[in-house]
């Protein structure tokens, strides 16, 4: 990871690289964690024209409150003229996104490198 990365908090780490803001979620993302990190995500998603990547690679568990957190982040970023890409290499989480109809809503990639190499369109 880049040398200018902020030290991780318990479940979230934010840093800048390749012109993008990266939010790396860590561990279990459940209702308790979602409540604890929502203010930090709101601060990041409240900036205009943010190119945001949320990296779920280190996530071990994601419940419906985690999905709500992701949807809120996407809405806030897009309302401010930005773009959000979701890195999700986990088949179980991808299946969850597909079941609830979000796999077509989010720009999904399997790796952080793919997200950084992709354009800003949602295709």
Explained architecture:
This protein is 37% helix and 26% strand. Strand 6, helix 3 and strand 7 (107-109) form a beta-alpha-beta unit. The longest helix has 16 residues, at 64-79. The chain has a single domain, classed as 2-Layer Sandwich (Transcription Regulator spoIIAA), CATH 3.30.750.24. The strands form two sheets. Strands 1-2-4-6-7 form a five-stranded mixed β-sheet. Strands 3-5 form a two-stranded parallel sheet. The model is unreliable at 1-8 (pLDDT under 50). It is α/β, with parallel strands linked by helices. The protein is built from four helices and seven strands.
Key attributes of the depicted protein:
123 residues, alpha/beta, Transcription Regulator spoIIAA, five-stranded mixed sheet, two-stranded parallel ribbon, 37% helix, disordered N terminus
Characterize this entry briefly:
By secondary structure, the chain is α/β, with parallel strands linked by helices. It has helices at 31-45, 64-79, 91-99, 112-117, and strands at 12-17, 20-25, 27-29, 51-55, 59-62, 83-87, 107-109. The chain has a five-stranded mixed β-sheet.
C-alpha geometry: globular
What's the overall average pLDDT, rounded? 90
Number of domains: 1
What is the fold-level CATH name, i.e. the topology? Answer: Transcription Regulator spoIIAA
Strand order of the largest sheet: 1-2-4-6-7
Give the arrangement of secondary structure elements.
Elements lengths: L11 E6 L2 E6 L1 E3 L1 H15 L5 E5 L3 E4 L1 H16 L3 E5 L3 H9 L7 E3 L2 H6 L6
Parallel strand pairs: 2-4, 3-5, 4-6, 6-7
Antiparallel strand pairs: 1-2
């Amino acid at each position: 990871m880049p040398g200018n990365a902020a030290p991780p908090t318990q479940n979230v780490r934010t840093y800048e690289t390749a012109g993008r803001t990266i939010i790396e979620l860590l561990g279990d993302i459940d209702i308790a964690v979602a409540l604890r990190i929502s203010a930090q995500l709101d601060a990041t998603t409240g900036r205009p024209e943010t190119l945001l990547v949320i990296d779920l690679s280190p996530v071990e568990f994601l419940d419906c409150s985690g999905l709500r957190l992701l949807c809120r982040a996407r809405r806030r970023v897009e309302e401010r003229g930005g773009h959000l890409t979701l890195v999700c290499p986990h088949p179980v989480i991808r299946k969850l996104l597909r079941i609830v109809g979000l796999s077509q809503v989010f720009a999904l990639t399997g790796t952080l490198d793919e997200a950084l190499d992709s354009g800003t369109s949602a295709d």
